[in-house]
Design brief:
It is built from eleven helices and seven strands. It is mainly alpha-helical. The protein has four domains: about 40 residues, no CATH class; about 80 residues; about 60 residues, no CATH class; about 60 residues, Orthogonal Bundle (Arc Repressor Mutant, subunit A). Bound molecules: zinc ion. The site of zinc ion has 9 residues, from helix 7 and helix 8.
């Protein structure tokens, strides 16, 4: 269902079809024959006579010149029969090409906008379609990153995604809840140490500012003290050019 839906969406964007959301459009009917021919049909098909008479009585001669909205349920009531039987009779008249009967619609509609194309030769703008696919993929990747990232508040992450920067954390997302523990310096140190080690391990060598940028933290006294401590303990190696790495 999803694949079909997105394929239809692409055809719509490319201007081949029109898609409309589910909407209600009442049944319509229009006589395709003149009064004289209709009279002959009434005689030849006695079973259809009551419906034809009722249509003429209810909607009048306009039926010969235009499409009239009809209500099968009301017609059925007038003839003291079921709606299904009325619909069947109208369909029969349709097959006989006495009327054009457009049944009511309450489902999404597709309209072909262009003339008919050979499906294999549809002039699709493949460049635009693949560009759109890339954009969609980018968005999906961002959402995956959102789900996996552990460095900032989820709300802040979403704000960043939409180009708004905010310094205030939401305080209620899983990240914020987890980081309430931030108030405990020992816990913060342990977490930060783990993040520093992981970041250096996956990046190889980083300058101090590069490391802090990756961690999205500022060069606070606390952080710098921890980096010194880790270097002294030999957890981090500081190279002559100042870059940091893990042995
Ligand atoms: Zn948050």
């Amino acid at each position: 269902v999803l694949e079909t839906f997105y394929a239809l969406k692409v055809l719509e964007e490319e201007g081949f079809i029109g898609l409309s959301e589910s909407y209600y459009s009442p049944s319509k009917i229009h006589f395709l024959v003149g009064p004289q021919q209709l009279y002959e049909i009434q005689i030849a098909h006695a079973s259809l006579d009551p419906v034809i008479k009722l249509l003429l009585r209810t909607y009048g001669g306009n039926l010969f010149s235009e499409y009239m909205k009809i209500n099968e349920f009301k017609l059925a009531k007038a003839l003291e029969t079921s709606e299904a039987k009325i619909i069947k009779s109208l369909e029969k008249l349709g097959q006989m090409e006495v009327v054009d009967y457009e049944k009511r619609k309450d489902k999404p509609q597709i309209t072909f906008i262009t003339s008919r194309y050979d499906a294999a030769k549809l002039p699709l703008n493949t460049k635009r379609i693949s560009l759109r696919r890339e954009l969609t993929l980018e968005k999906a990747k961002s959402m995956v990153a959102y789900a996996h990232q552990e460095v900032i508040c989820r709300t802040q992450f979403i704000q960043e995604y939409f180009g708004e920067k905010s310094d205030s954390r939401c305080g209620i997302c899983d990240w914020c809840v987890e980081n309430k523990k931030m108030e405990d310096p020992a816990w913060v140190e342990k977490k930060l140490k783990k993040q520093i080690i992981e970041t250096l391990r996956s990046n190889g060598e980083l300058s101090q500012s590069g490391l802090l940028e990756s961690l999205r933290i500022s060069a606070s006294e606390f952080t710098l003290e921890l980096l010194r401590k880790l270097t002294d303990e030999g957890v981090i190696r500081q190279h002559k050019n100042g870059t940091l790495s893990i042995d």
